[in-house]
Design a protein that fits this description.
The chain contains five helices and twelve strands. With about 240 residues, the protein is α+β, with helices and mostly antiparallel strands. It folds into two domains: about 180 residues, 2-Layer Sandwich (BirA Bifunctional Protein, domain 2), CATH 3.30.930.10; about 45 residues, Roll (SH3 type barrels). The strands form two sheets. The chain has a seven-stranded mixed β-sheet, sandwiched between helices. Strands 11-10-9-8-12 form a five-stranded antiparallel β-sheet. The longest helix is centred in the last third of the chain and has 22 residues. The chain starts with 7 loop residues before the first strand and ends with a strand. The structure holds biotin. Biotin binds next to α1, β3, β6 and β7.
Length: about 240
C-alpha cells in the first residue's frame, strides 16, 4: 500500500476526524515524511464551512499529509481531478462530475468531498467518499448519495485507496512541474457547474451569474451583470433553474 510519495500509512478503526489526527501529527512533528491517515469511521468528520461530514462505517475517509509543505489553492481542484479519474475508471457505468471547488457528484448528488487545510506545520488534504452504505440521513437525502446506492455494487475500500494513492502520485509530479494549468481542461470538461446559472453564498454576500469555467489558478469564472468576475472561494453554491 505504501508508495514513494506516501511512505507512511496509518489505519484506525474509529477517529474523530482523520484531518484532525493528521494535523496533530504535523504539529507534533511525528513524521518527517509524507503520511496518510485512514479510518473506518469518523465520529466528528469535518466538511467545508464548518459543516459535519456524515462518516458511518464503510465509507472511505483518509487524509494525505505533507509536513512543511504548502501548495497553491488549486491543490484541492487537482485532488478532485484525481478522485474523478479513479471513480470513473472503477465505476465506468456511472458519469461523475466535479463541482467547484471540492465536490464529486454523480446523478445530481454529492458522493465525495475534499477538505484541504494549511497551517505552519504543513498541509493536509482530507478526502471522504460515500462507498458501501445505503443509509443517508433524512436531511441529506436530497443532496447526497453513495456508490452502493448508485450501482448496487460494493467496492473493496483498501483497493480503492490504493488506486487513489497511486493515481495521486502519478499526477502529483505533473502538478508540481506544470501546475494546475495541466489539469484545467480535464476539470472544465467534467465540471458539474459548467454553463449553469448559480447562486453563490460567501459569508453575508450572495452573487448570481452563469459559470463560464475555471481558471488556470483554480478560480471560478462567473458571468454577472457587472461582467466576468473571478470567484476564489464560496461557502455554498446552488444551481438556479
Ligand atoms: C466537504 O465536501 O465539505 C469536504 C468533506 C471532506 C470529508 C473528509 S473525510 C476525511 C477527512 N476528515 C475529515 O474530517 N474531513 C475529511
Amino acid at each position: 500500500m505504501k508508495t514513494e510519495l506516501f511512505p507512511v500509512i496509518k489505519f484506525y478503526k474509529k477517529v474523530g476526524s482523520t484531518n484532525a489526527v493528521a494535523c496533530q501529527f504535523l504539529e507534533d512533528s511525528a513524521f518527517q515524511k509524507n503520511f496518510v491517515i485512514c479510518a473506518h469511521e469518523q465520529t466528528a468528520g469535518k466538511g467545508r464551512s464548518d459543516r459535519n461530514w456524515h462518516s458511518p462505517i464503510s465509507g472511505l475517509y483518509f487524509t494525505l499529509s505533507f509536513p512543511d509543505q504548502i501548495f497553491p489553492p488549486s491543490i484541492t481542484l487537482f485532488t478532485g481531478v484525481v478522485i474523478h479519474k479513479v471513480v470513473s475508471s472503477v465505476f465506468p457505468e456511472l458519469i461523475f462530475s466535479i463541482k467547484w471547488s471540492n465536490d464529486i457528484f454523480v446523478n445530481g448528488k454529492k458522493v465525495g468531498g475534499i477538505l484541504t487545510s494549511v497551517n505552519k506545520a504543513g498541509t493536509v488534504i482530507g478526502i471522504g467518499i460515500d462507498c458501501n452504505f445505503r443509509e443517508i440521513p433524512d436531511h441529506l437525502k436530497e443532496i447526497a448519495t453513495s456508490l452502493l446506492i448508485e450501482t448496487n455494487r460494493k467496492v473493496v475500500l483498501k483497493k480503492l485507496l490504493k488506486v487513489i494513492l497511486k493515481t495521486f502520485e502519478e499526477n502529483f509530479y505533473l502538478f508540481n512541474e506544470k501546475g494546475f494549468l495541466y489539469f484545467v481542461e480535464y476539470f472544465n470538461d467534467h465540471h458539474y457547474l459548467a454553463q449553469k446559472r448559480v447562486l453563490i453564498y460567501s459569508g453575508e454576500k450572495q452573487l448570481t451569474g452563469i459559470v463560464q469555467g475555471v481558471t488556470d489558478e483554480g478560480g471560478l469564472l462567473l458571468e454577472t451583470e457587472h461582467g466576468i468576475l473571478p470567484i476564489l472561494s464560496a461557502d455554498k453554491i446552488d444551481i438556479i433553474t
